[in-house]
Amino acid sequence: MAKSKNGGSRAYIRGRIGSDVYSVGKDGKGGRQQVVRSLAVQVTNPRTSSQMFGRMIMSTVMQTVSALSPIIDHSFDGVAKGQPSISEFIRQNYALVKADAIAHPSEDNSFGLNKYGEKGAKLGAYVVSSGSVPRNANIDAAAGPLNITIGDGEKTVADFLTNTGIGTDGYITLIGIKANGTGAFARLSVKAGVATSTVITTENLNNIFEVDANGAYTLSYQNGNISLLLTGLNGDGAADYIITKKENGAYVHSSATLIVSDSLDFTSDVALPTYPVGSAQFLNGGDI
Q1: Number of domains present in the structure of the chain
Q2: 139 and 249 in one domain?
Q3: Model pTM?
């Protein structure tokens, strides 16, 4: 009980009355005292156009991160694997998406923008890898499958390593986004212990090569060409390849840009008004 200045006593109040919140605290001598806190009558809406523009770009980039994180977490030379590599992906692609949205606020966009709360990667040319290893004319993944040309006639594992330049401890990664916006990836390497003199045939293909994939795949060999196809990644989405090899005890990579087309199963592949600002307005891609 608390003593009243007018005599008598009263109980401490707890709870909210109107815009005031009552609680019980302690005074400087440790005694109990009534505490009253007034709530703000009007709260400023933090969703400014500038803030929501930034959130829209980040959301779009992070949907691609979600699809490709198992690969982009170690695909940038000179950047530590894990979160530092993912942060490098975000840094580079955030700048690209932002510049595109500013230049093309409502049409003719290079990058699509996710609607508010929409999931899945959107169209655009995403930098997924950067490094010192040159691109290789014998390797192609533009149509979806990873195709590796070794040459005519009887070919060995040594011929494969020479034509790809990966070395016995390197690998080639097929990376892509399927038509439904989900990520797809498969890593192809020569199995440990396989002699480089081994002749590659259709029959012994799976005894020579190791495939680490996040989905069903088909590995085939015909007329000096190796083909690795991931189910659902056959030209309807987007694909590219990354060469990874070991140099001076460290893995280095080739550069890769994943060009996602507008064939994805989404309807808002341009920068349209997609994000709420305040209670009734909507943010257009370039209105900052």
Answers
A1: 3
A2: yes
A3: 0.77
What was the pLDDT predicted at 4?
44
pLDDT tens-place string over residues 72-98 = 999 999 999 999 999 999 999 999 999
The answer to whether residues 31 and 106 belong to one domain is no
Could you tell me if 246 and 288 lie in one domain?
A: no
In a domain, 221, yes or no: yes
Whether residues 79 and 106 share a domain: the answer is yes
- Asked whether 217 and 102 are in contact (CB, 8 A), the reply is no
Residue-number span of the structural domain to which 85 is assigned:
50-114+264-288
Q: Tell me if 123 is assigned to some domain.
A: no
3-state secondary structure the chain: CEECCCCCEECCCCEEECCEEEEEEECCCCCEEEEEEECCCCCCCCCCHHHHHHHHHHHHHHHHHHHHHHHHCCCECCCCCCHHHHHHHHHHHHHHHHHHHHHCCCCCCCCCCCCCCCCCCCCEEEEEEECCECCCCCEECCCCCEEEECCCCCCEHHHHHHHHCCCCCCEEEEEEECCCCCEEEEEEEECCCCCCCCECCCCCHHHHEEEEECCCEEEEEECCEEEEEECCCCCCCEEEEEEEEEECCEEEEECEEEEECCCCCCCCCCCCCCEEECCCEEECCCCC
Structure tokens at 179: 């038509």
Distance CA 181, CA 185 (A): 13
Predicted pLDDT at 288: 39
List pLDDT tens digits, range 125-174: 999 999 999 999 999 998 789 999 998 889 999 999 999 999 889 999 99
